[in-house]
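Predict both folds.
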Amino acid sequence: MQNISKEILKNNKSQNMITDITHLNKAWQIFSSIILQNAKKYIPCISKTSQSFNVHTPITSKIYKALTILNKTLRIIRNSTPQQYIIEINKNISRINELTETDINQTNISDLTNDLSLTIQNLEAYRKSLYTAR
């Protein structure tokens, strides 16, 4: 505390009497910089990083992520030629299995060409079970 008051007095002596707004602004700038320098020097601080805030529990978040992936997979199967996207479909199914710890069978080209409606029904059954589990 002694250092702060000495610095303020030293800088105040160098300034003449405050007669107008410019001198007031200069004096205030010197005063605030002395306060900030000493605050940084003498007041300990802790740096804090931002933390993510999850509205849902981790399990619920995984189920929502799995539902998103499952809906995307169903959209691919219904709206495009699924044979072209077999690798992406199987990758999505693997990701759903990891997130939800279920055992959805990987699809192959014969499932998509011969039994497309059965494949869609199976995936919709999984989707319904995930909706009720959330």
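Second protein follows, with its predicted structure tokens after the sequence.
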Amino acid sequence: MIDLPRFNECSEEVRIYVFYDLFVNLLMDAFQIEELMAHPSFKALSPCEQNRLIRLAITKQMTLPLKVRFNFKNWLSQATTLCPKDRKTALIRVIYNLNPSILRLVLNIRKSMYSEKVPDPLFLTK
């Protein structure tokens, strides 16, 4: 879809949602995400949106039960360079540089606190 000639004619909001789906919802692996981060359509997004999408991809990848761990230092460096004023990315970078396992623990705790259970429609009553 991102290779379609008219994709860059879509609003930035639509393009952001597409990359969000690719990075976060479709559970692509880190190597596939890294390829997409080099894509001209991704580079055409505003720097702070690129930063946000990279941060969201990292936090998603860090909470997945993977056998092979990816080194996100380059991603974090790129993200903070793109949008230095983003405090969330800066904090994630500091914790990751301190110890990736600590970041993984913090993210998993946060995920368990904020993950909402979707109610089964069969049990909904009016």
